[in-house]
Design a protein that fits this description.
Elements: E1 9-11, H1 12-18, H2 23-31, E2 38-40, E3 43-47, H3 48-61
Length: 67
Amino acid sequence: MSHATPSQLITFRELHRRLPLSREWLVAEIRAGRLPHLKAGRTLLFNFEAVKTALAERAAQRPDADN
């Protein structure tokens, strides 16, 4: 597993801007522990590539996912 450098980490606001997903859905997924993130004090930081990978893996596991 590769480690993110500080320049590869983005804030929640940037994550939300980059993904076509609602803020509420993202918050729910983060709270459930299904999106990889780091917590620095009160700030959540994300490696965008790791989040995309996690979402793609979840989509591939869905029974109705397109193959």
